[in-house]
Amino acid sequence: MSLRTSRLLLRPWRASDRALFAELNADPAVMEHFPAVLSREQSDAAAEGIQARLAENGFGFWAVEVVETGTFIGFAGLSRPRFDAHFTPAVEIGWRLARHAWGHGYATEAARTAAAYAFDRCHLAEIVSFTSRTNTRSRAVMRRLGMRYDSADDFDHPDLPEGHPLAPHVLYRLAADDV
């Protein structure tokens, strides 16, 4: 299944997406708020996991392409966090775009479409989004989506070692009633 905006197509993944996905996962600027860049093998494994969860859940992180050019620019969509935290179980909205796609409003546009899908088709009551405290770009997208932040929801990401500079995370929430 695919979702479309005037500029973007959120679609199932293709084998041809893998090389471009590996490029963006190897870009230190794109991966600044993650523990490390990914090797080609790690990136391919991530793509396989994303595809499996899309098939399993009926939603997931869709590949995002620019309609006008057909260019793959990253992913956006919904996912179930696979760790325990005070807010799980939950459905997360997330995105990761190639650096050349930044600054065009694509992340917000794709995320709005995924949020509409979460509420209109999946009938979810709430979605969440989280990132490292220092990720100002993603936090700006969360605010543009109308997500609410409460510092009481801040948490240390359980997959990162204690004291890791990226461990402190913020959580934003969006309820179906808020859209």
UniProtKB/TrEMBL annotation:
InterPro entries assigned to the protein according to its UniProt record, in alphabetical order: Acyl_CoA_acyltransferase, GNAT_dom, N-acetyltransferase
Residues of the N-acetyltransferase domain: 8-177
Coiled coil (residue ranges): none
Entry's Gene Ontology molecular function annotations: acyltransferase activity, transferring groups other than amino-acyl groups; kinase activity
Keyword Transferase: yes
Gene3D superfamilies (UniProt xref): 3.40.630.30
Pfam families listed in its UniProt record: Acetyltransf_3
Domain of life: Bacteria
Record keywords, A-Z: Kinase, Transferase
Keyword Methyltransferase: no
PANTHER family assigned to the protein according to its UniProt record, in alphabetical order: GNAT FAMILY, PUTATIVE (AFU_ORTHOLOGUE AFUA_3G00765)-RELATED-RELATED, N-ACETYLTRANSFERASE DOMAIN-CONTAINING PROTEIN
Official protein name in the record: Anhydro-N-acetylmuramic acid kinase
Native source organism of the sequence: Streptomonospora litoralis
Organismal lineage: Bacteria, Bacillati, Actinomycetota, Actinomycetes, Streptosporangiales
